[in-house]
Amino acid sequence: MADKRIVFYEDFNNDDFAHTGGIKWKPLKSNFKYLHKSIFWKFLSSLLYFVIAVPLTWLYSKVRYNVKVVGVKKLKKAHLKGYFVYGNHTQEADGFMTQDFVSTGRKTYVVCSQDVVSIPCIQHLVVMLGAIPVPMGPEQAKKFVEAIEYRHKRGDVIVIFPEAHIWPYTTLIRDFPDASFTYPAQLNAPVVGTCVTYEERKIFRHRPPRIVLHVSDPFYPDQSLPLGERTHALREQVYHFMVDVSSSLDNFEYIHYAPKPKTKK
Fold first, then answer.
1. How far apart are CA 199 and CA 3, in angstroms?
2. Per-residue three-class SS string for 32-72
3. Distance CA 187, CA 131 (A)
4. What are the chain's domains?
5. Tens digit of pLDDT for each residue in 97-144?
6. pLDDT, tens only, 11-30
7. Is the dihedral of CA 16, 20, 24, 26 positive or negative?
C-alpha cells in the first residue's frame, strides 16, 4: 500500500480531527429535555432504533469497515443488567458500532457532544436513537444526571468515550480524566472497556484497514473505597485495558499522528 498519511497535532488530549461536515455548533437551550417518558415517544424511538437504525448501521459497519468483534461472549456469560461501556474514539461511527456489536438487543445510549444534536431538523431523531448530549450549565447538568440514572435503573447500556475527541484510525490511547467514571462508581454499576484496533486487509490493501473491536471482562466498583478512589480505580482498569490492547503488534497504523514541529524563530 502507499506510504501512510501523517497528521500533526498540537494538543495531544484536546485536538479533534472529526469530519463534521461544517456543522455549526449551536448551544442547546437550558431547558433541553433529556428524558421523554410518553408512550408514543417510547414506541416510536424503539421502532426507529431496533427496526430501522440497528439493521442499517450493522450492515454499514460490515460493508465499510468489515468489523470483527473479540471478547463479546464475556458479557453474555456475566448476565449484566444496566452497565456502562467506555471506548477509545477513532471513528465517527464508534457510537453505533458499540450499539450494534457490544450491547446487542439492548437500547443503548451514547453520551455525545452537543454538536451531534445541533441540527434542529434532526435533533429529535438523534435523541430518539440514543444520543445524550453533554450538559452545559447547572440546569442541564441536573437533567443529564437524572437521565443517566434513569437509563441505568431501566437496565439500558450507556456508552462514553472518555477521550472525547475523534482521532481517525489512531493506534494511540490518549490520556483522560476520572470524571466520566463517577456515574458507575456512584451507581455501583458494572463497567466494560472496549478498544478499537486495526487490521491490514489482505486482499483489498488499498482500502482502509479492518476494524477489530475488543471487549473486556466487566469491571466492578470497589464499594470498600471512598467515591474518589473508587472512580479512579475504574478509570485505571479501563485505561490499562485500552493501552494493553492498542499496543499489540497486530494494531496496524494507517495514519501516523505526530507532534507538530516547532517553528524556528
1. 16
2. CCCCCCCHHHHHHHHHHHHHHHHHHHHHHHHHHHCCEEECC
3. 20
4. 5-14+26-259 (3.40.1130)
5. 988 999 878 899 999 988 887 776 788 899 999 999 999 888 899 999
6. 999 998 987 555 666 778 88
7. negative
